Amino acid sequence: MVAHIINIGDEILIGQIINTNGTFLSKSLNSIGFNVSKIISISDKKEEIIDCIDRSRKDSDLIIITGGLGPTNDDVTKHTLTSYFEDKLVWNYEIKKHIEDLFKKFVSTPIIQMNREQALLPSKAKIYKNIYGTASGMWFSEKDVDVISLPGVPYEMKSLMENSIIPDLKVKFNRPYIYNKTLLTYGLGESAIADRIADWENKLPKNLKFAYLPSLGRVRLRLSSTGGNMVLVKDEVEKQLDDLKKLINDIYVGEENDGSIEFHIAKILTNNFKTLSIAESCTGGLISSIMTSIPGASKFFKGGVVAYSNEIKSSILKISNKMIKKEGVVSSKIAELMALNIKKIYKSDFSIATTGNAGPTIGDLKSKLGHVYVAIASPKGVFVEFYKMGNHRERVIKKTTNKALEMLFKHLKSVKDYNFE
Predict the structure, then answer these.
(1) 305-342 residues labelled b (16+ CB within 10 A) or e (exposed)
(2) CA distance linking residue 90 with residue 120, whole number of Å
(3) DSSP secondary structure letters along 181-244
(4) What are 45-82's pLDDT values in tens digits?
(5) Would you list the DSSP string of 378-414?
(6) Helix or strand or coil: residue 5?
(7) Does the pLDDT of residue 371 top 70, yes or no?
C-alpha cells in the first residue's frame, strides 16, 4: 500500500518551522505496513492543494494532509477539500458543543462566530473529534483513493493519528507486514563500518533492505523486510542482526527502541547508585543539557559548570592561573584537572570535562582549530583523550559531545561488577 503525505503551510516553506509532522506520519504509517513514497510541503493555496491531490492520487492509495484547518481566512484546506469532493458544509452539533466547551474550560477570551464555524464540516466525510483543539479530522473516501485531513498542530495531529486514524487504517486496508530494526553505533564512521561488514552485507537476501544513517560521531544501521508472514519476516531480520552484532560488538550501543547512548548511561548510573558531574568549556553546556533531558536525571546527575572563561576555570574549578598559562587552556592537563575538580566539588562518582577550540577563529588560544581534549574521572582515576574534530564550529561541538558520552559509556560498560539490566 502506497501513501503520500502532504504538509500544508507557508511557514514550512520559508523555514519558519521544522516539518516534524511529516516525520511522525511517515514513521507511523510505515509501522503498519504502508510504503510512504512521498512527503510534500506546499503553500496555503487552493490551486496548490488541488494540483497536489490530483498528482498524488495517480500513484497512491492513501493521502494524508496536515495543516490549514484553522478558523482564519488563510486556512483553506477544509473549504478546498469540500469543493474538490463535490460536497457541502453542514453543522456538526456534537463538534459545535465540543468547541464551545473547550472555550468555557480553557480559553479566557470569549468565543466568536469564527470559532463556532469550525463545526461546519463536509457532509460526506467521516469526522474525527479533536479532543485537544477545535479543528476536526476529516476522512474522504473514493474508489481510487482515501484522503485524510488532520490539524497541523503536532500534538493534536498525533493524538488523532494514534487514537483514531491508525486503528481505522488497520481495519480498512489489507497491508503487508513491515519489520525493521535500527542498531546504534558510536565511535566509527560510516565508511569504516561498511568496510568491516562488507561480506555480511553482500550476502544479505534480496528481500532485506539495509541502510546507513550517519550523523556526527554516530551511525545508525537499519535492516528492514516486508512480507505476508509476520513470523517469517521477523525471524529473518533477527537472524541477520545477530550476525551483524558480532561484527560490530565494540561499537554497538543498543537498539534504537532501547534508547540513546545517554539513556543507557543514565540507566547504568541509576541502577548502580552512581552519580555524575560535568565541567564543560568548548561544548558550552550541551552535554549537561542532554543528560538532564532524561526523565529521572535527578537520581544520578549532581550538577555541572560551563567554565567557558579562564576566570571560571580558576575561581570555580580551582585551577590556578599559573597552571593555565603553563599548560594552555586547551590541553590534556587542564582537561584532567577540570574533571578531577568538578568530581571533587560535587562529590560525584564520575565526571566529564571538555576543553577545546571550536572556532571559528583561534583567538588567543595556543591550540589549533578543532583540537579538543575530553577527560573522564572515575573512582579508579582519570583518563584523557585528544581529538581533531575539524574546522566547523557546530561539528566540533556536537562531535565532542558525542565523543564524551561514548567515552563514559565504554568506561561504565567495562566495570565488571555493575548491573546493566
Answers:
(1) bbbeebeebbeebebeeebbeebebbbbbbbbbbbbbb
(2) 5
(3) EEEEEESS-HHHHHHHTHHHHHTS-TTEEEEEEEETTEEEEEEEEEES-HHHHHHHHHHHHHHH
(4) 999 999 999 999 999 999 999 999 999 998 999 999 99
(5) ETTEEEEEEEE--S-HHHHHHHHHHHHHHHHHHHHHT
(6) strand
(7) yes
